[in-house]
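Quick one before lunch.
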Amino acid sequence: MKYYILFGPPGAGKGTQASAMVQKYNLCHLSTGELLRSEIAAGTPLGLQAKALIEAGSLVPDEVVEGMIEAKFQGTEGVDGFLLDGFPRTIAQAEALDAMLAKTGEAVTAVVSIMIPDAMIHERIAHRATIEGRADDARPEVVENRIRTYHDKTEPLVGFYKETGRYNEIDGVGTIAEVQGRIFDLMDRF
Ligand code: AP5
Ligand code: MG
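Model of the BIS(adenosine)-5'-pentaphosphate complex:
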């Protein structure tokens, strides 16, 4: 199995690019943000625990997302691999992922990192707020907290994965089709 990490700040275009990637490479798309939003919508205990944290733009506890991901790894068949979107988001989650995969002698295949400047994060999220109605897109202070949380807790993963030699960065500035072309050029090598 292939294990791709789709990495990048809020609003970089991870969800947007994921749909074409999963089709072309027969992958299962696992977005921890989407899984958590489904739990909230269904009113599960996990959703209730996550709701306030997500709506404040803070991370949910590592164990919560690690458990969700491991359950999906075990329950998914008929694909050539997984596209992890928004996971891992802390060094602890990256270490937990390595430990999960090591149980079956597997490892992360590659990190595909979509990078955009902070000013563009604001533009894209403001645009999406008018379309999708996500609770964590509506308030500027929450978007600020998501960006701060990304820089503090998630960006250290760039160094973590550079050390493994599996880190690949894509320029996320451009049209959706241009960014997709850059991603496909990269993915075709794996
Ligand atoms: P999550 O859902 O993962 O949100 P995020 O990381 O903030 O990323 P987004 O979904 O906002 O951005 P995206 O990169 O998918 O951009 P998109 O393609 O939509 O997480 C939400 C919350 O859940 C977290 O804050 C946290 O609380 C919790 N959580 C999730 N995972 C967790 C974890 N592992 N650990 C702990 N907590 C976790 O694009 C954005 C907009 O831009 C769209 O409108 C799109 O149409 C547009 N767009 C995209 N590409 C382009 C382009 N090239 N040109 C112009 N517009 C574009
Ligand atoms: Mg997304």
